[in-house]
Amino acid sequence: MTNMKKLAAVILGVGLLAGCSSQPAPPSQSTEESPAPWSPEVYVALGDSYSAMGSTALPLDPPNTCVRAQDSYPELLAKELDVETLANVTCQGATTLDVLSSAGEHPPQVDALTPITDLVTLSIGGNDASFILMASCLERGAQESTCQQEHGQQIALEISDLPRRLDVLYEELAKRAPNARVVATGYMPLITSTDDCAAIAPLAATDRQWLSQSIQDINLAVADAAARHGALFVLPDDAAQHTGCSPDPWVDFTGENTGSFPMHPTHAGQQAMADAVARALSA
């Protein structure tokens, strides 16, 4: 509910041949090879289910309660960047507390960080703001649309506290991996305020607006925290065109047609995020 170098081709013109030769000047050619894309040596992926879950058809790695898929964006990104070492400790249900401490059955995610970590991706904040309650409004298909009435005040308070929680987390990241580039990834929107499809028909327009705005508010808090701490914030520019109502969803309400987990990124969504992070790191 995973926080970028410029690729430039340096072309040097070759001088014209000296003397009175009637031969035409040779064409310009590169005297230096283009720099290779940055390839991190040690990449640590932190976060929740939006960075852990992928296709349901693929075996989980490892097959535990974190539901960490082989086509989650950290796994795809590591291949794209030709990373030497990936420590993927993302876990479904994780909050900032789970990243920082042993709040449940898993050790603190920050334990995977070391001084030689040179890339960190971070997908966190949604569960701190009760994203699951927002998603449940879509899952239950309520005949009476009362999501904002039931959960609005609680979620507003949680979102208002999110900057403080994220600041604490970034301070710990800086201590444990002081030389790492950090990329914070946003949450693919489940719906926009203008979406209209059968799956969200039971939701009143006011609840659609509230749900859409709440996800935007979470992303804004995540982006602002990244900016305060010198990290990159990444969300594909066209994510709003790939909601659960779109013909090509990057998040799916049920997962039935895309082989993904309900209310989570599809394989296409995870690939889009991996590509967006790679582009941001090479910019």
From TrEMBL:
<protein>
    <submittedName>
        <fullName>GDSL family lipase</fullName>
    </submittedName>
</protein>
<feature type="disulfide bond">
    <location>
        <begin position="66"/>
        <end position="91"/>
    </location>
</feature>
<dbReference type="InterPro" id="IPR036514">
    <property type="entry name" value="SGNH_hydro_sf"/>
</dbReference>
<dbReference type="InterPro" id="IPR037460">
    <property type="entry name" value="SEST-like"/>
</dbReference>
<dbReference type="GO" id="GO:0019433">
    <property type="term" value="P:triglyceride catabolic process"/>
</dbReference>
<feature type="disulfide bond">
    <location>
        <begin position="197"/>
        <end position="245"/>
    </location>
</feature>
<feature type="signal peptide">
    <location>
        <begin position="1"/>
        <end position="24"/>
    </location>
</feature>
<dbReference type="GO" id="GO:0004806">
    <property type="term" value="F:triacylglycerol lipase activity"/>
</dbReference>
<keyword id="KW-0732">Signal</keyword>
<feature type="active site" description="Nucleophile">
    <location>
        <position position="49"/>
    </location>
</feature>
<feature type="domain" description="SGNH hydrolase-type esterase">
    <location>
        <begin position="45"/>
        <end position="272"/>
    </location>
</feature>
<keyword id="KW-1015">Disulfide bond</keyword>
<feature type="active site">
    <location>
        <position position="264"/>
    </location>
</feature>
<dbReference type="Pfam" id="PF13472">
    <property type="entry name" value="Lipase_GDSL_2"/>
</dbReference>
<dbReference type="InterPro" id="IPR013830">
    <property type="entry name" value="SGNH_hydro"/>
</dbReference>
<feature type="disulfide bond">
    <location>
        <begin position="137"/>
        <end position="147"/>
    </location>
</feature>
